[in-house]
Amino acid sequence: MRPSNLLQYLKKAVENRTDYPNAPIVSIVKVLFHDVISVIDKADEGRNACTYAKEPFSPSNIIVLCDFDGTAVNIDTCQFILDRFAGSGWRTFDQQYERGEISLEKNMRLQFSTVKAPWKQVLNQLEEAAEYRKGFPELVNYCGQRNIPVIIVSAGIDFVIGHLLKMKSWENSLDVHAPRAIHTAQGIRFVFPSLTYKTSENFKDDLVRNYKKENRIVFYIGDGAADYHAAVEADFRFAIEGSKLAELLRLSSKPFTEIESFESVVSFIEYCSEQLC
User: Fold this and answer.
1) Among residues of the chain, what percentage have pLDDT more than 90?
2) What letter does residue 128 receive in the DSSP assignment?
3) Mean of all residue pLDDT scores within the chain
4) For residue 71, which of 12, 156, 158, 195 has the smallest C-alpha distance?
5) pTM beyond cutoff 0.85
6) How far is CA 123 from CA 62, 118, 120, 209, 261, in A?
7) How do residues 48-101 score in pLDDT, each as one tens digit?
8) Segments making up each domain of the chain, as ranges
9) C-alpha distances out from residue 208 to 64, 70, 139, Å
10) Which residues lie across from 66 on neighbouring strands?
11) Could you tell me the CATH superfamily of domain 62-75+132-274?
């Protein structure tokens, strides 16, 4: 790769990076490319970048894990449902979860046990409110053309996610790793994915750890506190601008990229899958 091509990419890759606004571009790049820093150091020699990467980059070992609510779509579908259809006091459970007093699973079970509205009515309102974030269709198309798996990893409601994916004819293009919702007379009951590792915080970081064990290069995109541990485990982290995840990653000093759209994610994956090989 010629140094000029690399520099053009690097400039594009850091356009939306806001956590080091005054840093020289090379300094930012060295944070962003923490696992392939030797690629930057050797770029001037015009050598093959893959020779210096810790893991070989190719479409066959890249995998993209993406949160749904507030990330792939512009709204939190769970909060949308709870705001309009749940009984009073559901936010109390969120506060208990953030304080570490209850698990994510228990939080959702308690919250949605108060939703009694017909789900057809709920889905109709979601169709009008939910929009996919800019660049997400391009991510799906780009990865689909190159057989790079994109997996929705969400603590949302599986049939809600499936319904919104079907609106774009993506139901067979994207796998969904989420709790299974079961309708009961007492409301919705959730069956969460089982954990492989007892030390996992939740099913999201557990999935990342499973793929890392397979030597996959994991890209993780999210926005919430529930995404934090998964993002930390991933190779490359992207957080929605101004999100709780961005705040937590910044406090942890973990390298990540803050984004408004998926355009920079597509550019990064394109670089890794087509040029670092």
Assistant:
1) 53
2) H
3) 81
4) 156
5) no
6) 33, 9, 5, 33, 25
7) 333 334 455 666 789 999 999 999 999 999 989 999 988 778 889 888 988 889
8) 3-51, 62-75+132-274
9) 10, 20, 19
10) 152, 221
11) HAD superfamily/HAD-like (3.40.50.1000)
